[in-house]
Amino acid sequence: MHFPFTPRVRRAFLVGGFALGALAAVTAATAGSESVRIRLAGAPFTAGKLATISVTVRPVGVSCRATVHPLGAVGRALPVQRARKGAAHWQIRIPAKAKTGAWLVSVRCGKAGAATLRFTVKPVVSPPPPPPPGDPTIAAAGDIACGPSDTGFNGGKGNGQLCMQAATATLLGGIAGLNAVLPLGDNQYECGETANYAVGFGPTWGRFKAIEHPVVGNHEYGDAIECTKKTDAADYFSYFGPAAGAPGQGWYSYNVGAWHLIALNSNCGFITGGCGAGSPEETWLKTDLASDTAKCTLAYWHHPRFSAGPDVGDDSRTGALWSDLLAAHADLVLVGHDHTYQRFAAMDVNGNATPDGLQQIIVGTGGQEHAAVPIPRPTLLASDNTTFGVLKLTLHPTSYDGQFLPAAGSGTFTDSFSGTCA
Fold first, then answer.
1. DSSP letter at 418?
2. Which are the contacts of 320, defined by CB distance < 8 A and separation ≥ 6?
3. Greatest distance between any 2 Cα atoms in the chain
4. Rounded to two decimals, what is the model's pTM?
């Protein structure tokens, strides 16, 4: 096996480089004042990438020979290095097609002795392929970011069960060709405060603010036992600006590719006229749907119309909105509020399965915490309350593909599905 290499003496690795990467060391000494210690900067290494091997030696000034090879294979020699100041360094490039798994580096430095260190070489990870041209990709989740007073905040990193907004944001960053992000409400806990947006949502999901099209949740209105007073969600509207729709309303629509997307406000008790038939919001929705010429339509808001979660249950307040969307042959509804993932079959106004109905997907998995296990019901096709993540949708001109993607360190649940627009 051939190793292209560029031998260099790099004192930066000895002084500060080790603090930036994973470290490992093995020492073999022949006397109290004689030793050889191997250190690896940045291990485990990735095939095709540069790797740095450093050796500290006592006494100084000896010559060091090194070999590197996969476990069980014949070692290949690296150029001899003289440890003039008690250190020798080699920089090699692990071949891109090299065997991955356990490797060994062995070093012998004159009378100082020898040492061997086992390390790992990881395979090359290819970036996710971009979606086909003309087929945009969107991602959605609600119930996202903790505030710093939360016991699981952990500097914004979460603890695996709480405050995992950084992990779900990292997941968003790995979706190639992402065209839009849909925060589904309760985007910042506990009460949507500007100060908490600055340290919770902002550094994580806020990285995608330029393509975010949010809806407002009950916590943004202070409608939760953790909030000392109810508000008009002013901090939410201030943070997102025009992207959130008109303050006091929060509903708007736009197009992504061949699809028409409609953002609605399900906090019916906090908006003029509520959400019922004849209300300003419902009247606006009817007008918007009447002018909608797209083959495919997706609507989204915070509170589920139907939920199998025992903590939430069905919510009839958005029944008129559901009826209007159903009559207009809309295709998908995305919601949050229930801190679970639930994918339903297409349903009618009463929640019964029907081929001509609306398919609703609850994605309350943005990171804040998990809710109780959903109770099985005939229309519930998939559910989970163990894994944080986001829903990825690829929007084709007359159909869609969906995937629930799990965030690293939070669970392993996945789901995938496809559908055709009405």
1. E
2. 275, 276, 277, 279, 282
3. 91
4. 0.70
Helix axes 280-290, 319-327, angle to 10 degrees: 10
Would you state the structure tokens that stand for residue 56, as one six-digit string? 């500290």
Q: How far is CA 335 from CA 20, 306, 338, 351, in A?
A: 41, 10, 9, 15
Q: What angle do CA 373, 298, 232 make, to 5 degrees?
A: 75
Q: What are phi and psi of 97, to 5 degrees?
A: -100, 15
Closest residue by Cα to residue 137 from 93, 89, 178, 197? 178
Q: What is the helix, strand, coil percentage profile of the chain, to 5?
A: 20, 30, 50
Cis? peptide before 310, omega within 30° of 0: no
> What token pair was written down for 169?
């944001």
Structural tokens at position 318 = 């958005």
Give the count of beta carbons closer than 10 Å to the beta carbon of residue 29: 14
- Please name the residues in contact with 207: beta carbons below 8 A apart, sequence gap of 6 or more: 169, 173
Q: Which pLDDT tens digit goes with each residue over 156-190?
A: 999 999 999 999 999 999 999 999 999 999 999 99
Q: How far is CA 360 from CA 258, 351, 382, in A?
A: 20, 10, 11
Q: Rounded to the nearest 5 degrees, what angle is found at the Cα of 349, between the Cα atoms of 345 and 354?
A: 40
Q: Is the pLDDT of residue 2 over 80?
A: no
pLDDT at 29 > cutoff 50: no
Q: Are 189 and 146 in contact (CB under 8 A)?
A: yes
Residue 4 has pLDDT above 80, yes or no: no
* Cβ atoms of 225 and 191 closer than 8 Å: no
Query: Which amino acid, 259?
Result: W
Structure tokens at 103: 């490797």
Residue 403 predicted with pLDDT over 80: yes
Q: Contact at 8 Å (CB) between 168 and 197?
A: no
